[in-house]
Each structure stands twice: as C-alpha cells, then as structure tokens.
Specification:
heterodimer, A: about 290 residues, mainly alpha, globular, B: alpha/beta, 9 helices, 9 strands, about 25% strand
Chain lengths: ~290, ~250
C-alpha cells in the first residue's frame, strides 16, 4: 500500500517543484481543453501547431532584451503570435490563399527569425528551454501567468460560446441574419495565442500543442456535444499531465514529452476502443450489419 | 404587389470573371420564385449576394421596406459540417438568432417554438439526437425547422432538395407553399423543371445573364432553355473578362 502511495502521491508530497508542476498542468488543461476542441471543430488542428512556432521569435526578442525573464518573453511571444494571426487573417481574407497556407507561410518566416535570433544571441541551452520548456522549473510568476490565462480563457469562452458554436456550425446562416461572425474568430485566435504563450513556458512551444490537440482529438471518440468534448478534453489533459509527471519522476524522463506521450496514449486508446466510431466499434458494427 | 428586392445592373465577378452579368429586375413581395439555369450560371452567387454574403462588383441589391438582414438563408448542404457535434434542438434554436443573439437568454416561448417547428417538419422526439446521426433528408428537415423558427419575411433556399429523398422533398415543398400562402417571399435555387412548373409561380432563368424572368410557364419554354444552354457554353469557351466590372 505504501509503495502505491509513494509512487503516485509521494513525489508531490515531497517536492514543491512537483506540486507546482501539477498545478501548472491543471491551469494549462483548463485553457487548452476548450481551445483544442474548437481548433478541431474549426478544422484548424494544424494551425495550433503553426501558432506555437510563431511565438518563438517574440520570446527570443523578449529574451534578448530582458534575459530569462518570464513577463518579457511571454509578452514578446504574445505579440509575435498575434501579428502572425493578424497577417494570416488579412491574407486569407483579401487573397485567394487559403487559411492554412497563409498561416504556414507566416509561421515559417516567424520561426526562422526566432531560430536565428536565439542562435546568434543566446546559448543552445536557452534554445532548448524555449523549444521544449521545463515544467519542473515553473516558478510563482509563471504559475500566476498560467492561472490568469486559464481564468481569462474560461471567462471569454463563457461569453462567446453561443456565437462561436453557431458560427462554426453554419457561418452563412448567421451572416445572412447580420451577425458578425468574424469577431468570434478573431477573439478565438487571440485565445489560441494566449494559451500557447502560457504553455510554452512549461512545455515548450512544440509540446504545448500536444496538450492542446491530443485530448481534444481523443474526446471525439467518446462524446458528441461541444460542452462534453470540452469537459472530457480538460480532464484528459490534466490526467495526462499528472501521469506524465509521475512517469517522468519515477523513470527520470523529460517531463514535457512524457506528458504529451501519455496524452498520445489516451488518443490511441480512444481511436482503438472509443464508443463513438472507434476502430473496435466500427469493426463490430460492420460484423453486426453483415449477419 | 410592390417590389421587395430590386436588382440594379447587378454584376458578381470572381477574379473579374463574371458569375452574374448585368442583372436587373425585382422580386415582388410575397412572390415564390425558382432560380434555375445550367451549372455555373451564377444561381448560388446571386442568392448569396442578396443574402449579403458576397459583395457585388457592380450594381446593387436594394431592399424595399425591410431590413436587409431580416432574411433566413439555407446554404447548400455541402456548406454545413454534418459531423459537427450538436443536438438537433440546438440547431433549431439557432433560428432565434435575431431575437436571442449571442448573449440574450433563450426563453421558454423560444423553446416551445423550436419544439413546434420540429413537429411541423415531422421530427417530433428527435430533439436530443445529434445532428450528424441523421440521414441527409432528416438533416434537411431540421434546417427547415430552423427556417420556421427564424420566422423571416424573406426566405432563400440554395438547392434545398439536392440529395434529399422524394418523400422529404414532398413534405418540404408543402412547407414552402405554406410560407407562400402566409405572404412570405421565397427564392429557391432548383434543378428539377417539373418541380418548378408544379410548385413555383415565377421563375428566373439565369445563364450568367438573365435569359428570362417572369411567370414560370412563359419562362420555361424550349427556346429559352436552349438559349440558356448556348449562352453558358459560349461563356465557358471564352471565359471572358468583364471590362465594366471591378
């Protein structure tokens, strides 16, 4: 009994950095859950990835100006992300280029600038920190930032929820009635950037997307309502965070990839055995129809 | 009957290639009009422009005595993500958007109206079902229930009966006729000439340029249909650029 306790609870009882990491996971999942679900629903799954990369040069500029300072790097990342989202939005709107193509173009430029800045003005260690994060090094300031982002995200989603869902389902019907669907899209993109910035500190720009997308894609194999998707994705995200931290502690693994891999395992499990169009379900149903 | 929508020298172009070319005319208040024509004749572009979804490159759409946004628009089935995780009842409730908007509460009366609309389209008891689990015909019934709830004086339908079974088509056509009797203005993009002859008093035959517009019997003549096809083929061959537009 004690061994189970030691294994699952011990690390958090013994070390404050583990407790902090756990709280960080909770804050991140609360914001990333709804953001991920709406990214999937809007068919923008890969745009989350591009946004994560776009944050890099901003964080690098922040680092160059103020050193390893969280507010400076976060603010820089946020500005860079919003600029990429804004330009991509304008290009999508005024040229024949589709949204994914314009996002890809701007994020590549942004990423290259970021790598250039980090390589010439920082050390490899710094680059690794920005790319892969360090959830075990989360301090009070970053915790506050994550909690603030989660709070702001949840409050904003509560306000725009109906419009976002309706606009996502059938934009033309709403626009014909005179509703301005574009505003929901813009606010949503800002939330995506905010949650990326909040996540990159803990998980790095690359892994932050994992905690956002994997629980959301997995949830689609279990439930069929927007609110239940969000609830499940949030819980799955937090549990992945917890399990990833335990695994990384017990087996001395890097925490970011461990967390994302647990989320990935949950996705594969859902894909195989989820009751809503999971593989097993589809095979059984086919057999049922044949007989 | 007075005009509800007046089109003045309307040209709609994509990349300077016109989809609709110099179209003038009017939809009268309370009229029931079918918009027909060959593929690529600009039918969808026309009603999207009237719905305010596309900006015309030239000319204008003028509304008489009604707000331009007091209209209910049914997009083509392909424009809606059928796998979207939403319940049938929530889709129908969206029809209340002009009254409820993004923030105002959904009243008991609004819920009742939505339930009654589902009853009218023959989907009583389907409210908890997920939209994606329905057949194409049932999904179209749900979207018609949303139009009933919207309760607009102007209703625009873009290919409402494509990929819908004949029984559903019959039921939905009765709804369209009911709207007509109630004095609403209905504009529908259609393909089935028989359907148009039987149910739609007026027709606009479009082949980028208007071929004929008026009483259905006078519009749907062999000569006109031949002319429409010839015009659309000529357009395709030349792929002209409209110098007057943009």
């Amino acid at each position: 009994m004690t061994t189970v306790y030691d294994w699952l609870v011990g690390p958090f009882a013994d070390f404050s950095f583990m407790r902090r990491a756990l709280v960080a996971c909770l804050a991140l999942s609360l914001g990333a859950g709804p953001v991920g679900v709406f990214l999937v629903l809007r068919r923008m799954s890969l745009i989350g990835d591009t946004m994560a990369h776009s944050v890099l040069p901003g964080a690098a500029v922040g680092f160059m100006i103020a050193g390893l300072s969280l507010p400076a790097m976060s603010l820089g990342g946020f500005v860079a992300g919003v600029v990429v989202a804004l330009f991509s939005g304008l290009v999508t709107r005024f040229t024949p280029l589709k949204e994914d193509a314009s996002f890809a173009s701007f994020f590549l430029i942004s990423l290259a600038i970021g790598v250039l800045l980090v390589s010439t003005h920082g050390t490899t260690v710094d680059l690794m920190h920005v790319l892969f994060g360090s959830i075990l090094g989360v301090d009070d300031a970053s915790l506050l930032l994550m909690a603030a982002v989660a709070t702001l995200s949840l409050a904003t989603f509560a306000v725009i929820f109906r419009g976002l869902v309706a606009e996502c389902f059938d934009p033309a019907f709403l626009r014909a009635l005179g509703a301005r669907g574009g505003i929901y899209h813009t606010v949503f993109l800002i939330l995506v950037v905010l949650n990326m910035v909040s996540g990159f500190q803990a998980l790095g720009t690359l892994m932050a997307v994992g905690l956002m997308m994997l629980p959301a894609t997995a949830a689609r194999f279990w439930v069929r309502q927007v609110w239940s998707l969000i609830a499940l994705a949030t819980v799955a995200g937090f549990l992945s965070g917890y399990a990833g931290l335990v695994l990384s502690y017990q087996f001395n693994l890097p925490s970011g990839p461990a967390i994302v891999l647990v989320a990935g395992g949950f996705y594969l499990l859902s894909l195989a055995a989820g009751p809503r169009d999971g593989m097993l379900y589809l095979i059984l149903r086919r057999r049922h129809l044949r007989s | 009957m007075p005009a509800l929508i007046e089109l003045r020298d309307l040209t709609i172009a994509y990349d300077r290639h016109p989809a609709v070319h110099h179209l003038s005319g009017e939809f009268r208040r309370g009229s029931l009009t079918a918009v027909i024509g060959p593929n690529g004749a600009g039918k969808s572009s026309l009603i999207k422009t009237i719905a305010g979804l596309i900006k015309p490159s030239q000319g204008e759409v003028a509304f008489r005595g009604t707000a331009p946004h007091d209209l209910a628009y049914l997009p083509q089935a392909a424009a809606i993500d059928e796998s979207f995780p939403i319940s049938v009842f929530d889709v129908v409730l969206m029809g209340h958007w002009r009254r409820a908007g993004a923030f105002r509460p959904i009243s008991a009366a609004m819920r009742e109206a939505a339930a009654f609309a589902l009853l009218k389209v023959g989907l009583e008891g389907f409210d908890r079902r997920s939209f994606g689990s329905l057949s194409a015909g049932q999904r179209q019934r749900v979207l018609f229930a949303r139009l009933i709830v919207a309760d607009s004086p102007l209703i625009m339908l873009d290919e409402p009966f494509a990929a819908v079974d004949s029984r559903t088509t019959g039921d939905l056509l009765r709804l369209v006729e009911r709207w007509h009797e109630e004095g609403r203005t209905v504009i529908a993009v259609l393909h089935d000439f028989d359907q148009v002859r039987r149910h739609f008093p007026e027709t606009l035959l479009l082949a980028r340029e208007p071929v004929a517009w008026g009483a259905t019997a006078e519009v749907l003549t062999a000569d006109n249909l031949l002319a429409a096809r010839a015009m659309s083929e000529a357009w395709d061959a030349e792929a002209d650029i409209c110098r007057g537009a943009a």
